[in-house]
Amino acid sequence: MSRSNRTSNPVTAKRGLSPNVLVTLVIVVVAVLVVGGVLLFSGGDDNADGGTEQPRVAAEVLRKPDSHTLTEAPDGKVTLVEFLDYQCPACASYYKNITSKIEQDYAGRITFVTRNFPLEMHPLALPAAQAAEAASLQGKYREMYHALYDNFQQWAISADGQNVNSDEAAAKTVFQGYATQLGLDVAKYQADLTSPQVQARIDQGRADGQQAGVTSTPTLFVNGLKFAPQGDTFGAVDQELRELIDKELG
């Protein structure tokens, strides 16, 4: 009889769940709901509007005291930082459709900083970065930055128009032509191209970009918030970036 009391009905033994198992399942379900809710409402790190839910990258990582600026805001309220690759087609498209207009439209209202992040997949990205940095040593960074992007098709794209150019010698000749047009001391410019000072600037940009989580170009930050656009047209992306800037301007 004691055995009968200890033995469950075979059917209910197969189909039923012990109290311990039921408690465990309830805990698991609640945990899933809580975690799912957090993920749903936080939206992750790549919010379309760069909302405050995501962490801000420290200003000292994104900008060094000697970092180049395209525009300066006296109040320093908003800083836009772009990690770029001069031979990156996406960067050139951003420049043409978005960032060059931001530079003009927000001049004096925001500080626009550009950082080097040349990618290995682009054979002329490093020589172009060297050209920009060498020009900066003669106070012409902004002018060389514009020359490189305004003439992107001339040096960055191959003759077939389908691939990035890899002719470094030809590109350097083109860059020297820009240096001449900008009124640089060409001998000094040439010497500076491979100088330790220029290489250190480029290496610092790469290192800071990696620390900030940059894996592709262009990558932009507004007051430390990574810009993660959701739009599928340049117009939509431009609007998203302006909305984020305007939000930070208050």
TrEMBL record:
One of its GO terms (molecular function) is isomerase activity. The lineage of its organism: Bacteria, Bacillati, Actinomycetota, Actinomycetes, Pseudonocardiales. It holds the Pfam family Thioredoxin_4. The keyword Isomerase applies. It comes from the Bacteria. It comes from Amycolatopsis magusensis. This is Protein-disulfide isomerase. Belongs to the thioredoxin family. DsbA subfamily. Keywords: Disulfide bond, Isomerase, Membrane, Oxidoreductase, Redox-active center, Signal, Transmembrane, Transmembrane helix. The chain crosses the membrane at residues 21-41. Residues 48-207 form the Thioredoxin domain. InterPro entries: Thioredoxin-like_fold, Thioredoxin-like_sf, Thioredoxin_domain.
